[in-house]
Design brief:
Blueprint (H helix, E strand, L loop, with lengths): L4 E4 L4 E4 L3 H27 L1 H4 L2 H19 L12 H5 L2 H24 L6 H18 L10 E4 L2 E4 L3 H25 L11 H14 L4
Antiparallel strand pairs: 1-2, 3-4
Length: about 220
């Protein structure tokens, strides 16, 4: 069933209502890709000779996920509807999704460049956790139901956002902080234990699992 339309008061044009099913699908797809990232990194650390080729796979997973979200994160907006880029950017939820997508594109690009030996040095190693930190913090300000859209539930108007969505995003934020912190320590050579390198990819797998079970 196609979402109903509402009229955006700023532009006097009808816009499709946000689709919770598509939102859940996008979160679940993101979870699968994030799990792939974590498992790939674990295999690289465990068996670098056998699974060294995966150093290109997991950055491309992030890049492809970012590219997908640029296009399909918000059907009410550009590029999958008649709404312009400028109008889409004015929709809070759509703008936030595009920013998340751009962060994924940058993380994938940086790690692919590092895997290919193009980006060298410790500063490039810290680019991934810096971008991940930006995404984690931005989650705290992410609200569903941008552009003033409302939906009907039990005959009453309710905001598209809900406490369960906030708690899930807060869980992602906490896992993100763990990933960022452990990755920074690894890049700074502070995790010298045998299991040190496995911390951030293990937390990444947990983040992916949490995304797979996302619901609104």
């Amino acid at each position: 069933m196609m979402p109903m339309e509402h009229v955006d008061p700023r532009y006097r044009i009808p816009l499709p209502m946000p689709d919770p099913q598509l939102s859940e699908f996008n979160h679940h797809l993101a979870g699968v890709m994030v799990i792939l990232v974590g498992i790939s990194a674990i295999l690289i650390y465990a068996r670098p000779r056998q699974f060294g080729f995966l150093k290109y796979v997991w950055p491309m997973s992030l890049f492809l996920l970012g590219a997908y979200l640029v296009v399909y994160s918000d059907p009410p907006g550009w590029p999958t509807s008649y709404v312009s880029i400028a109008h889409t950017w004015d929709m809070p939820e759509a703008r936030q999704h595009k920013i998340f997508a751009l962060l994924l594109l940058m993380m994938g690009s940086v790690e692919a460049a590092r895997a290919a030996g193009i980006a060298k040095g410790r500063m490039w190693g810290l680019a991934f956790p810096a971008l991940a930190l930006a995404g984690a913090v931005y989650l705290l300000f992410h609200k569903h139901g941008g552009s003033g859209a409302m939906h009907m539930e039990h005959g009453e108007h309710m905001e598209h956002g809900s406490p369960i969505v906030f708690y899930q995003h807060f869980t992602y934020f906490l896992l993100g902080l763990g990933i960022v912190g452990s990755r920074i320590l690894l890049e700074m050579d502070k995790l010298r234990t045998r299991w040190g390198p496995y911390i951030w990819p293990s937390l990444t797998v947990l983040l992916g699992i949490a995304l797979v079970f996302y619901r609104e």
